[in-house]
Design brief:
It contains six helices and four strands, in the order H-H-E-E-E-H-H-H-H-E. By secondary structure, it is an alpha+beta fold. The protein folds into two domains: 54 residues; 104 residues, Tetrahydropterin Synthase, Chain A, CATH 3.30.479. Strands 1, 2, 3 and 4 form a four-stranded antiparallel β-sheet that branches. A hairpin with a 6-residue loop joins strand 2 and strand 3.
């Protein structure tokens, strides 16, 4: 009888040891699966970056970087008077007060801008007053606004072009 009790205890210990071993194996397999899955996801998600890094950059992007890096090559600056316009708003009256400076590509362009100043100011007022607060509140929105102003003014000019538009004052109320 004592021997039977010992055999039962040994069998129970083997069962407990076997279930612990099985639990450890399952945990190890899950960890290996998570690591392999993480590595696969990493390589799949980062694979596109390597292709983009190996491709040559577009010429326009390279030119923009050169302009920003070399601030000594800034063209003549043409300051405009202050603009105060109403913004598009559904629930309240909001307005924008801003001051804009234009960077010209050559000193000769200043004469043409002087002659076309009323048309340029009108164009800028129409662009500014067509915007909502949400469109121009973020830095990205301001950059889009600058690009739109630059593009539209350059359509009016014949002897040169506007290189850059600078906001020297920008208040939304």
């Amino acid at each position: 009888m004592a021997e039977e009790k010992e055999n039962q205890e040994v069998q129970e210990e083997k069962k407990e040891g076997g279930s612990k071993l099985l639990l450890i194996v399952i945990i190890v397999l899950l960890l290996i699966l998570l690591i392999v899955g993480g590595l696969v996801a990493y390589f799949l998600l980062s694979g596109g970056d390597e292709e983009q890094a190996n491709q040559p950059q577009e010429p326009q992007k390279i030119e923009k970087k050169k302009k920003v890096e070399n601030m000594t090559e800034i063209g003549p600056i043409y300051p405009l008077d202050q603009f105060i316009v109403n913004l598009v708003s559904n629930n309240s009256s909001r307005y924008l007060k801003c001051k804009i400076d234009l960077e010209l590509d050559s000193p000769e362009l200043q004469q043409e801008v002087d002659k076309k100043l009323p048309a340029i100011r009108d164009l800028i007022i129409r662009i500014l007053s067509s915007k909502t607060v949400e469109e121009i509140q973020t830095a990205k929105g301001k950059e889009k606004l600058k690009e739109e102003i630059k593009r539209k003014i350059n359509e009016l000019l014949t002897t040169g072009e506007i290189r850059h538009v600078y906001f020297t004052e920008f208040v939304i109320q």
